[in-house]
Structure formats: C-alpha cells, structure tokens
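Re: weekly structure request thread

Next one in the queue (203 aa):
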Amino acid sequence: MAKVKLTKGELKRQRDALEQFQHYLPTLQLKKQQLQMKILEAKKKLAQKESALESQQKQIDDWVGVLAEAPEELSSWVTPEKIISETTNIAGAKIKIFQDVHFPEAIYDLYITPFWVDEAIEKLRDLSRLLVEAEFIKEEISILGQELRVTTQRVNLFEKVKIPECSENIRRIRIYLGDQQANAVGIAKVAKKKIEVREAMAI
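Done, posted below.
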C-alpha cells in the first residue's frame, strides 16, 4: 500500500476516489454478467452449428464416390465469393455477425453434366455456409472472452484492491486527524489553565 499524507486534503481525495470506484463497480459487474451470458449463448449456437456440420458432412460422405465424376468447376461453385456480415456492439465489444454468403453462379451444360450435380452443389454450399457461420461464432467467443478477462480484472481490482485501500486510508487519516484534534484540545486546555493561574496570581 502506497504511503498517504495524513491531511484533510488527502482525506477528501481518498473519499472522492472511493466514491468513484463504488460508482463504477456495479457497471463493471453488470458488464461482466452480460459477457458471461453472451459467451454461453454463443457457445450454445456453436454447438448447434457443429452438430449441423457433422450431420451435413455425413450426408456428403455418401456422395464421395460420385463426386469424382463432378465437373472440375464444382469446387469454385461451392466456395463463397462474398460473405456478408454486420458489426454490432455486445457489452462494449465490437462483434461481426454473420448475415449471408454468396456463391458464384454454377453454369454448366445440362446435357453432359450428371443429373445429381445440382443436389451436390446445394449440399456442399450448405456445408460451406455452416463452416463460415461457425468461424464467425468462434471469433465472437474469442473477442467476448478477451473482453470478459479484462472486465474481470477491473472488477477484481476495484473490489479487492482499490476500494479496500481507499477505505483503509480514510480510516487511518480519520484516526490521525482525530488524535491531532484531541491533542490540540488538550494543549488549549492546558494553556487556558496556565493563563487562569497567572491571572489569579496577578490579582
């Protein structure tokens, strides 16, 4: 604990600091709760996406044999050419939220291309979309987690260090000033007594 001046000015400074810490602490605690809740929600969403990914992957595994006969361009048709997102603020953290994904148009000859290509493209695009969504959610969890760590550190700093420190400083200054005042009163009484004795002797 840093050494503090035992003065009235320092007492006011410590009181002001304590008031400020106590004012901001509830806001930080609320932010911490919001972040914890949002992280839990994001983890739940991620679990749902990963479950859907697993299911989609199993469906695509059934196509492995015929995909070898697919047009060479298939890979480009199921690779996103544009990902649309919007930025939002969650408990003070800037998060990108997935909106949509656009794929290039699949242009092919209907007469020579296998009939199952349309369905394969649809399923592979669904898989690609789920992968993109999952990555957005993972990034959200990462950003919110970092914000939670910083907020938790601040809550702990206020609760366990700053507020107790200010309270202790105020207590020490009050005791010191109280002792000083008592001493001053004692000295004044002694001085008054001496003056009264001198005046009595002078009569």
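The chain has four helices and two strands. The longest strand covers residues 93-102.
Next request, please.
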